[in-house]
Amino acid sequence: MAPSNDLNIEQELNATSQRLRSHLEASAYYKKVSPDHLREAAWAYLEVGGKYLRPCLLLWCCRALGGNEEKALPAALAIEVFHTWTLVHDDIIDRDAVRRGRPTIHEEFRRRGEMQLGLGEFSSHYGQSLAMLAGDVQHGWAVCLFSEAAPQDCHDEDSLALVLSLLRELEGEVLTRLVEGEVLDMQLSRRPLPEVKEEEILHLIAGKSAALFAFAAQVGAMLAKGRYCPEDAQVKALRGFGHHAGTAFQLQDDILGVSGREAELGKPVGSDVREGKRTLPLIFSWQHASSHLRRRLEEIVGKREASQQEIEEACALLQELGGIAHTRLLAEKHVTCALNCLEVLEPGPEKELLVRLAHFMVERTH
Predict the structure, then answer these.
(1) pTM check: above 0.90
(2) Looking at CB atoms within 10 Å, which of 64, 116, 204, 236 has the fewest?
(3) Which residues, 6 or more positions from 45, have their beta carbon under 8 angstroms from its beta carbon?
(4) How far apart are CA 23 and CA 140, in angstroms?
(5) How far is 128 from 197, CA to CA, in rounded Å?
(6) What's the pLDDT at 327?
């Protein structure tokens, strides 16, 4: 299913993102957070702005089923803020110093702790603590935003039950899948390369990345229908669309992490190699490498003091050994699966938008 040439997905994403961001900036929640460092930490990533792919997916799935996008805005914003706190905590776990072209939260407030508060050796602990607490604030903010999707009319029992059920699913199921994926990511990074299987990486991606995409699509579909109906054919199909699109997104992320451009990515290329993350490009390449190249990859991957030349060497090997090509092929297969899920929709501009979004997952360069 090829996308139409007259629809510019990046323009559509930018327009929807600007609309979402203007509503987020008007939120009173983070403005009442104090002291200043905590408030600024909670707003920092949102101020820079990401791709807003998950909230756009939610709104466009709602639109595809004839729903009211305006009423879905609080839930869409909640998904973005929820996603943001996971990034803040993920950066602490990965010990990353840069996100979206700026210092990560824990790094920024380490600096402020040192420069503004004179905390000396305590600055590192201060930065990490601020980041964790900022993530907690964002988590609470996300729940508050989601609750705003509930109707003011207390007699609309179906809609009230819908929002409550979705919140329960977000906090009780999606959250546990995300955290499971994070833990598996850490555990696999310390496992010997020969022991890591492709299936384990895909299971990790299903939790850490695809779960929130799938949930966002489901929320949009259910808000359009006005009731909690996980077994509805269209809801299940759009949830499947979100799962496969989200998987393709993460696979493309892993490709860009070793072959992209730092200026576009907003973070150093090869940081996953330095951290020792077990990504699909790495595992496939190691499995198809000679004994000599396997040893070389094992020497570099996970070596935090590796030189830039060594990192570039490892990234080049992932290209030469077919890891990037294999991952790209798998990402494209997931796009095809995502498009197949859209067969439940009638042809039209709403469906076309989702088609184009699926293709964007593997066409993007940042």
Answers:
(1) yes
(2) 116
(3) 84, 87, 88, 99, 100, 105
(4) 17
(5) 32
(6) 98
